[in-house]
């Protein structure tokens, strides 16, 4: 009697179900396919070696699809309205004012003391101090280089910035303006989907908590963001550039869930958050993590499919571009191009102030 050996973990009778799993996850890795297979069949997940052998026996192989660049449609020339004096009126010194009267009305109650409060009257107006912080943010100037003929002394401005950052003033201002803007564009107060990503930036020598990002070849810090589908911030975490994206994801997502009350149920991310990181986020916060991979990535190809296939055009990754646009918005401010603060906490405060400043311009 011939020896048959141990029966295969995935027999030939289940190849049809295996093809359906691959069809639903064309860009998945072997461990991800094994996990999807176990969820479908209700059995323990096979190893990567077993899954590879079963895919090969079923006639499935990984191929890189040929792609054709999609031709952009001709756009009609848009009318450009130049920047004039009405956008930002200048003061007596000739330097454009940072905040207009309409913008200051939206933020005044957060920075002005309450009526009847005790203590020594302020020497400098709160508005001038906030404008000085915005000036440093936009120009990237150091505290000592603040124009003394326009703004208060840099010592007063720096102490006020540190005090307001610890009190969460900039974060509270942004949260208020974010909800107002979502209402203006007919969106719900809290989002149902979010996007996570990170960006590495250089750090100055006087900065602390620096590291080296071997992937981007950057010595500095890494800015982890969670934004809604409009590109507005939900969470900001600044770490050393040596910290991996997946290691800071738990803290960043927890901050976003706390701010929104757990309203978003879908989190879009790139392949850096795939695997155990995505599974831990789904288990801890009841959020479905959608991994968006590159369109030119290897795919699982079924040999039983038609021989002649149409070339697929390059498509923009769904939802993922929103957070990249937010990174571009932030880097309009020169203070955020390079980290100069000693503590990452104050680097986070600059990020909240930067987008709050952008929303003030929209809502005025």
Q: What's this, in brief?
A:
It is built from 11 helices and 11 strands. It is an alpha/beta fold and 364 residues long. The mean pLDDT is 84.
How would you portray this structure in words?
The chain has 364 residues and is an alpha/beta fold. It contains eleven helices and eleven strands. Among the domains are: 12-62; 169-301 and 320-363, Nucleotidyltransferase, domain 5. It has helices at residues 15-24, 30-41, 48-57, 101-111, 126-139, 154-167, 169-184, 245-260, 276-285, 320-330, 344-363, and strands at 60-63, 67-68, 193-203, 211-213, 218-228, 233-240, 266-269, 288-291, 299-302, 312-313, 338-339. Strand 4 and strand 5 form a beta hairpin. Helix 4 crosses helix 7, helix 5 crosses helix 6 (154-167) and helix 8 (245-260) packs parallel to helix 9 (276-285). It is elongated, with a radius of gyration of 26 Å. The termini are far apart. The relative contact order is 0.14. The mean pLDDT is 84.
Layout: helices, strands, pairs:
Layout: H1 15-24, H2 30-41, H3 48-57, E1 60-63, E2 67-68, H4 101-111, H5 126-139, H6 154-167, H7 169-184, E3 193-203, E4 211-213, E5 218-228, E6 233-240, H8 245-260, E7 266-269, H9 276-285, E8 288-291, E9 299-302, E10 312-313, H10 320-330, E11 338-339, H11 344-363
Parallel strand pairs: 2-10, 3-7, 3-11, 7-8
Antiparallel strand pairs: 1-9, 3-5, 4-5, 5-6
Helix pairs in contact: 4-7, 5-6, 7-11, 8-9
Would you identify the regions where 5 or more consecutive residues have pLDDT less than 50? Answer: none
Shape: elongated
**Mean of all residue-level pLDDT scores:** 84
| Count of beta strands | 11
């Amino acid at each position: 009697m011939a020896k048959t050996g141990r029966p295969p973990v995935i027999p030939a009778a289940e190849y049809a179900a295996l093809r359906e799993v691959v069809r639903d996850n064309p860009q998945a890795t072997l461990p991800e396919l094994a996990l999807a297979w176990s969820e479908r069949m209700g059995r323990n997940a096979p190893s990567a070696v077993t899954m590879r052998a079963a895919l090969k026996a079923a006639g499935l192989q990984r191929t890189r699809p040929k792609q054709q660049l999609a031709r952009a449609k001709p756009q009609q020339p848009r009318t450009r309205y130049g920047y004039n004096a009405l956008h930002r009126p200048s003061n007596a010194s000739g330097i454009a004012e940072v905040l207009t009267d309409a913008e200051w009305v939206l933020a005044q109650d957060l920075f002005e003391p309450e009526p009847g409060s005790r203590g020594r009257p302020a020497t400098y107006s709160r508005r001038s101090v906030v404008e000085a912080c915005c000036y440093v943010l936009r120009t990237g100037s150091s505290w000592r280089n603040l124009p003394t003929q326009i703004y208060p002394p840099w010592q007063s401005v720096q102490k006020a910035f540190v005090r307001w950052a610890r009190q969460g003033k900039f974060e509270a201002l942004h949260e208020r303006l974010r909800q107002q803007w979502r209402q203006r564009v007919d969106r719900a107060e809290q989002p149902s989907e979010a996007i996570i990503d990170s960006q590495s930036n250089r750090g100055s020598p006087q900065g602390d908590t620096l590291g080296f990002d071997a992937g981007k070849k950057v010595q500095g810090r890494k800015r982890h963001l969670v934004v809604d589908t409009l590109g507005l911030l939900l969470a900001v975490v600044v770490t050393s550039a040596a910290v991996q994206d997946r290691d800071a994801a738990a803290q960043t997502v927890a901050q976003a869930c706390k701010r929104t009350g757990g309203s978003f149920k879908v989190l879009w991310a790139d392949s850096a958050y795939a695997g155990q990181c995505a599974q831990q986020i789904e288990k801890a916060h009841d959020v479905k993590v959608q991994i968006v991979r590159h369109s030119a990535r290897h795919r699982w190809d079924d040999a039983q499919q038609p021989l002649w296939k149409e070339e697929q055009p390059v498509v923009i990754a769904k939802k993922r571009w929103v957070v990249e646009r937010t990174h571009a918005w932030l880097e309009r401010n020169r203070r955020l191009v390079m980290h100069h603060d000693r503590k990452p906490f104050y680097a986070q405060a600059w990020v909240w102030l930067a987008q709050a400043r952008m929303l003030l311009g929209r809502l005025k």
